[in-house]
Amino acid sequence: MRDFYGVTLQTPMMLGTARYPSPATMEAAFRSSGASVATVSLRREQGAGQAFWDMVRGLGVHLLPNTAGCHSAREAITTAQMAREYFRTDWIKLEVIGHADTLQPDPFGLLEAAEALCADGFKVFPYTTEDQVLAARLVEAGCRVLMPWGAPIGSGMGLNNIHGLRTLRAAFPDVAMVIDAGLGLPSHAARAMEMGFDAVLLNTAVAEADDPAAMARAFALGAQAGALAAASGPMGVRDMAAPSTPLIGKAWL
Amino acid sequence: MKIEVNGEPRDIAATDLAKALTELGWSDLRVATALNGTFVPAAARCDTPLAPGDRLEVLTAMQGG
C-alpha cells in the first residue's frame, strides 16, 4: 500500500472544512465518515480564526493546509511558508490556479512552486491535472504524492477523463495519488478507488448535501468498497456474453 | 507611520512587526505574518522593522477545501 510521505492513512478519505451550514455539521461529517485528513486554509485575521483552529485540532485528523486562491508561484510559496508555521505541519496542498472559470492549475506556476517548496523541505501534495508530462516533472521535483483532479473544483461531475486518469495511475506505480476535486457522488469515489487511486478528497459534495453527515458516510463507504475491489483483482471486461451457469449436465428437453 | 494591514490603510506608532501586532491587538492571537509578500516567521518579528507604505498581511486558520 502506498503511503503519504511515510504516513499510512486509516481511511482513504480526505475531507474539506469549507461550505458547511455550521461548525457542528462539519464535525458530524468528520465523525460519520472517519475521514483521516482535513484540508484547511489561511485567510486574513477577522476574529474567527482562533476558534476554528481549536476546532480542527479537536478533530484528531491530519491537517493538510492548502494554498487555495493563489494564482502565482510566489503567492503560493509565501502562503505555504505561513501555513507551515501556523499549522505546524510540512504537508501542503499546493494549488496554483491558472484559470478563473475552470480553476484548473497553472502547470508552469505549479511546477515552479513545487520545486521551491520540495527543496525547502515541504511535503508537497500538488493539485494537478491528469497530464502525465507535468506529473513526471512534479515527481522529479520531489513530490511523492499527486492530487489529480476528477473534474473542475466544485463541479460534481466526477471523473471527467477516465482514460487519462488510468494512464496516469499506471505511469507512476509508486506515487500515492488522491483524486482531488470534482467528485459529486459516492459512486465517483468508488470508481476512483477501483482504478487504484489511494484516496479521494471531497468538500462541496459533502458540505452542500442536504444531510452532510450522511453523505460523508456514503462517500466513505463508496471509497471503502472501491478500495476493497481494487485489492481483490477485478475481472476483465469482454465484448461477448459468457454464461456463468455451467452448460455441462443440462437436460435435453 | 502609514502602512497597509490586511488591505486596509492603518496609521501606527510601532516601528517593528512584533510591536505592530501588539498595537493592533493581535499579540495574543495565533497568526502568521507576511511583509510585502514575504513570509516573516514569528521568531523574526522583533527584528523586522517597518517602513511607511509597507504591506502587512496577518493571517489565521480558515475553512478550506
UniProtKB/TrEMBL annotation, chain A:
Give the UniProt subcellular location, in the record's own words.
Cytoplasm
Question: Primary place of residence?
Answer: cytoplasm
* Active-site residues (renumbered): K93 (schiff-base intermediate with dxp)
In which residues is 1-deoxy-D-xylulose 5-phosphate bound?
A: G154, A181, G182, N203, T204
Domain (Thiazole synthase ThiG): residue spans on this chain: 5-246
Q: Report the sequence similarity comment from the record.
A: Belongs to the ThiG family.
Quaternary assembly: Homotetramer. Forms heterodimers with either ThiH or ThiS.
Q: What name appears for this protein in its UniProt entry?
A: Thiazole synthase
Q: Which organism is it from?
A: Sedimentitalea xiamensis
Automatic annotation (TrEMBL), chain B:
Q: Which Pfam families match?
A: ThiS (PF02597)
Give the matching SUPFAM superfamilies: MoaD/ThiS
Identify this protein by name.
Sulfur carrier protein ThiS
Please give the organism.
Sedimentitalea xiamensis
